[in-house]
Amino acid sequence: METRRKILFTFPVYFLFGILPKQSYSFEIIAVRVWPAPEYTRIAIEHFVKNIKINFAIEENPERLVIDIPDAYLNPVDVKKILGFDIEETPLNKVKVTQIKQNKVRITFEMKPLTRARLSTIPAVAHYKERLVIDFIPHKRKDRLLTFLENYQQKNQTINALKSDGNKNKQIVIAIDAGHGGEDPGAIGKRGTMEKTVVFEITKKLKKALENNSRYKVFLTRKGDYFVSLRNRIKKAKDAKASIFISIHADAWIKPEARGASVYVLSSKGASSEAARWLAKKENLSDLVGGEKLATPNKVIAKTLFDMSTSAQIKNSSILGKDILKELSDISVLHKKNVEGAGFAVLKTPNIPSILVETAFISNPREELRLQSNYHQSRIAKALAKGIKKFIGNSPLKL
Ligand SMILES: [Zn+2]
């Protein structure tokens, strides 16, 4: 039936354009992008086929993920795209591409021991067409987080043992979240500057500026150019026992003249402005752009999470936001003079004051230039560090 329909449907097309039937189904690759990271390696194969039907299986000796793509024909350029990445930094030993039948392609990923594979198909979103996303997760991922926590707890115990005056000398963990990463470049400026790159630079400088004082320990939700889902950013911050969560961005606006810094908190009463709503919607799309299959929408869970973000948390977030906005006003114009609110998914961290900072507009050519500059990145980082320290100093929370 299926074949019959295809023949009926495609016949006039071949007739008109003289294309050979086999090629018209061809699985044409637009791009293959590989994001190796200690946490996991994501491989995104961008293509044109909607609702692609693939078969896959894990086979043993050696352990490998085998993906069969039907109705596919790979030309040497596509094969080169799949094989053309540096395997050294990934949890893979070998990648093989074979045309096993005239119209069937097999991709085999030979994995290192204890690697877990995850596969998802992502529909076209933002500037991407359809994607086949394969994640390879090394076993040590969990260990790394555990090691961090163990180290942190151990360090904390030592500090507490050395200094008897408790809270005053307790190390404060600050979660700094560099927006986007990997498959999700964030906003892109006219000169090609990517938001994910500049915010990561700012984040690293902010870590350094804060950790000048041994009272502060900075936890980075992402440590390189790879994607972390919004939910995972929150989870990591909670697991690291962070007292503050700050997400760093540099977004775009339709009008290139839009400029200045702004600070956002989670709002329970809807967005404070149309721009804030627009921005939150765009930021919340980050998971899909980054190649994360969206969890089945579970309104109950979403609501519970939101309800757990108490009014006290939102109030504290606003105070933190104001402290930071004040410092940013010394180094930059402000896009909005007050802390704005909207439904940002990444700010739904129960009981932790959480803010999202738009450091500047990457869509403004002058601000794009500044965002690229090492000097200006440092200025932003220093202003943020000053605001954070001020908040902690006057904190209404027992940090
Ligand atoms: Zn952003």
Structure overview:
This protein has 399 residues and is of the alpha/beta class. The protein has two domains: 2-137, Immunoglobulin-like (Sandwich); 171-393, 3-Layer(aba) Sandwich (Aminopeptidase). It contains twelve helices and 14 strands. It has a six-stranded mixed sheet with strand order 10-9-11-14-12-13, with helices on both faces. A four-stranded antiparallel sheet has the order 1-2-8-7, with helices on one face. It has a four-stranded antiparallel sheet with strand order 3-4-6-5, with helices on one face. The longest helix is centred in the middle third of the chain and has 23 residues, at 140-162. The protein is globular and about 70 Å long. The structure holds zinc ion. Zinc ion binds at residues 179-180, 186, 195, 249, 251, 283. Zinc ion (ZN) is lined by residues 179-180, 186, 195, 249, 251, 283.
Bound molecules: zinc ion
**Quantity of strands, as a count:** 14
What CATH architecture of the largest domain do you see?
3-Layer(aba) Sandwich
Which outline best applies?
A: globular
Q: Main beta sheet, described?
A: 6 strands, mixed
Distance between the termini: 66 Å
Strand content: 15-25%
Q: CATH homologous superfamily of the largest domain - what is it?
A: Zn-dependent exopeptidases
- Ranges where pLDDT stays below 50 over 5 or more residues in a row are 1-24, 158-166
Write the topology of this structure.
Layout: H1 2-17, H2 21-24, E1 29-35, E2 41-47, E3 55-59, E4 64-70, H3 76-83, E5 92-101, E6 104-111, E7 116-122, E8 130-137, H4 140-162, E9 172-178, H5 195-211, E10 216-220, H6 230-239, E11 244-249, E12 262-266, H7 274-284, H8 286-290, H9 299-308, H10 311-331, E13 340-342, E14 354-358, H11 365-372, H12 374-393
Parallel strand pairs: 9-10, 9-11, 11-14, 12-13
Antiparallel strand pairs: 1-2, 2-8, 3-4, 4-6, 5-6, 7-8, 12-14
Helix pairs in contact: 5-12, 10-12
Bound molecules: zinc ion (ZN).
Zinc ion is lined by residues 179-180, 186, 195, 249, 251, 283.
